[in-house]
Fold:
Amino acid sequence: MSDFKMELPRDVLYIIDRLNGHGYSAYVVGGSVRDSIIGRSLGDFDITTSALPNQTKAVFADCKTVDTGIKHGTVTLVLNHVPYEITTYRVDGDYKDSRHPEEVIFTADLCEDLARRDFTVNAMAYSPDGGLVDPFEGRIDAEHRIIRAVGDARTRFSEDALRILRALRFASVLGFEIEARTALAIRELAHTLSAISKERIYTELKKLLMGVDAVRILTDYSSVFEIILGGLTVGKLPDKERFDCSDYYSRLAAIFLLNSSAPYVAAEKTLVDLKTDKHTRSYVSSILRVYESTSLESVRDALRTLSKEGEEIVGGVLSLGILMGRFSDVEKCNLERALSCGIPYKISALAVRGNDLSDLGIRGERIGETLIELLSAVIDGQVENKKDDLTSYLRPNI
Ligand code: ATP
Ligand code: MG
Structure:
């Protein structure tokens, strides 16, 4: 047995013990074992067991269980409000459509279960009694920070094309290198990603873009991104140091800004195709639309932009500008001063309301128009934001 020891939380030990007590073997598996080897903070603990789903449910009959993926052997057990996925050892049958196995077959052999997993670093299991079970030398790969397909990379990516993007995601998030044959198969089979649902592609892309090594992966595998980003050639990227400090939306926007002749249109189209949520798509395309035309050269410029576009979009434009190295400290400072100087940039902050204007005899649509004119006059310094000053300013024209 190997010398590897993993600290497991009490509830995880309890799950393993209880399954063992009923005669089943059980291990933690996948990401938590990998992350423990490389000293990364642990997320979820997934458990794999020889118990069939109904047997797992019988063992935990007094606890809350949910049939999350019973067809694939997964029962979710909720212990102290934390969900644990417990999955029966299984082998995948033949694959159809580069994504779904035709059937899953349960097995009593842990090593068969590990063999169906995608990468060697994800194909390790651990339990206090069984120690580390590592038939594909995932520990060595984890220590050398390598992503390597379990078995023949081409075959594994042909079974499930999503693994192509998972490889890039793990390399980006963990800062790992992709082993040569695995890398070759990724490039050869990238076109098969078209069989994968857009939602799944986008979920991986999101995690990948926030990885510590996103710039390296985007650069080295640009041909893969061309396929998932609607033909966009990702040839240019911002400076890595600034990229690493930036938020998700700025990263996404910067990729379009640097590589498309019509960034706003391209981003909107690609994000619709990727079936992203509405907020992402409208926010990223708005940031790109406003970015070109925005001026923050004076506090009044900043106020005008804020009044037209709102704080959220201007904040996004500023973050994008910082990532692109476009905004100077003076411009950042102008925006901060605009936000805190007390001069209104929203109609709701004006010292007059619509009913004050009706008292002055203004009616219908003119009320809204007049409020916009007043806001603009306040921003331009023509009148102070005081009720008397604003009404006197209007009087000659009523
Ligand atoms: P993370 O920390 O991001 O959750 P993870 O390794 O736990 O990483 P998951 O997507 O949660 O990744 O999957 C759990 C495990 O299931 C993986 O470690 C891997 O063993 C296996 N797995 C998941 N998806 C696939 C797939 N498409 N093909 C083969 N094995 C997979
Ligand atoms: Mg996981």
Observations:
- The chain has four domains: 1-144, 145-227, 229-343, 350-398.
